[in-house]
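I am writing to request your help with a piece of structural work I have in hand. I am sending you one protein, given as its amino acid sequence and as whole-number tokens for its backbone shapes. Kindly check, if you would, that the fold set down in the tokens agrees with what the sequence suggests. You will find the record immediately after this paragraph:
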Amino acid sequence: MSPFFSKRRVSFLSGALLSAGLVAACSTSSPSEQQGLSQGQVRQEESSRRYKTAPQDDAAPEPSQVAALEAPEENESARSGGTAALMAPPPPSSPSIAPAPMGRAQPSPEAKREASRRAMPSKPMEVAQGVSGGAVDAMGDFAKEKAKKDQDTDKSLNEGGNTFEVYKPNAFTETTKDALSTFAADVDTASYSMARRYLQQGQLPPAQAVRVEEFVNYFKYRYAPPEEGAFTVHLEGAPSPFNARRHFVRVGVQGKVVSRSQRKPAHLVFLVDTSGSMASSDKLPLALESIKIAVKNLNENDTVALVTYAGSTRDVLAPTPATDVKKIHAALDTLAAGGGTAMGSGMETAYKHAVKKASGSVVSRVVVLTDGDANIGPNLSAKDMLASVQKYVSEGVTLTTVGFGMGNYHDSLMEQLADKGNGNSFYVDSMKEARKVFETQLTGTLEVIAKDVKFQVEFNPKAVSRYRLMGYENRDIADKDFRDDKVDAGEIGAGHTVTALYEVELTGEAQELATVRIRAKAPNGTEAKEQAFPLTRSQLKASLEAASPDFRFAVAVGATADILRAAPAAEGWSLSTTQKLAESAVGTDSDRTEFVKLITQARALTSASARGR
């Protein structure tokens, strides 16, 4: 079982528990009144509004309005855009679809007091002025306090009906006290595509929705593939653009490429959520088109089955050759949304179908397409769902979760299910993303080339005084479990790249900075093999300009994610710096070009927030 499942989750109380009078007190100030408030107070007003029970009341600015916003050169703190992400209201939910709580614990008295405090009218605050006369902090003390509270304890947090897991960002570790950093591989990308949707709708993503590793691993890097074996490792470092005393170090892994014609036959069981919450056009209709894209890219020896769940579970299509496109499409076209959400029952049914064809020569995978809502039936939590089908997972059935929609999206459930099910988690916000996931990435998603992949970086205290891993908080593994092959870890698919970034402070003259160890099992193996790779000063570039474009772009993405999630170590970092760094490494990659545009939108939104809009 993954380590983070042993952590105790605490549900966060949303504004639904507040009295009508208190809610009204938070939301009645007019725009003219707000113009007289300090920036810190306006941010407090926004914070109170975002916890209302009807998030659709917080209308998001149109994309055209965002594009029109000017992004002036803010001072270093305001430019960073860091903790402003915490205050961005979520996108409006689909009409007439109410968020459904999913097996959450009853709020504690402390949580109730905190919710009440958030609803109270904020007191006017002076805006701190710097030498230039600009705002020193675009958020104000209240937002800083909220960011700190959110990061102090891992918990499930509801933002406008969307549920996220909150993880405390990794802090710097003194090498003399702990030289080992151990974590599991992660190739999920859901966090990035969800954050993109927020930004494209004119809103900063909630800080807890941002997972650094999923931002970084969304993009393709030009690592040389292995000549033999499952993967190669690429190490590189360069000075930080934010702090002259620090360097960034990149650990890059490239999996071997398996062509479509070379991969094993696949049996896919598509488990489709057809409950009422899937009615909007960005949910069930987009999910069905995604399946059609997947079927188009399967081989002649592949088979497809279809199971749906709403108030009950239904077998819609028995295992059918992927070449029988007409029959598969006809089954898909009969589906419509309506009823409750018995997700746990649907999971168990899908796994029972998948395990029938599971073997060393066949890839058997359950693909769940849902908004993650689960409100009726047994096994409502991720832990309960996977516990009920654990025997199937051990028999070789893997899991892909694909999320759709906003307003009641359970990101925390989707991400945890994929991790526990030895698979991947994606979020599809458009047909473009559907094609990327089900067409471009399909082969890698299906063909696992290494499982239970663990990383352990041992830093040399004579060369590195402090270090911190950027992201991977929910993939943390105890150092002592690195060589325990019973401990679950991540999977790497064919052609996948895995990238991890460290921020380090160097000391002394020692040439060997660290040793990177990777431990992994063969797809059907039970014993892991270990490889070690030295990181030396010769692999550090003298400047960022001398580093590879892939390195510069990965640092730009990781730093942007740290700013958006208000990581304490990123305080004072600038989005304008990450944008310039990304622009220097775009090339002809359309995904990278899009990322630069997203930073521009994030800067505009941060500037608007700093001006009290």
Notes: The chain has 20 helices and 18 strands.
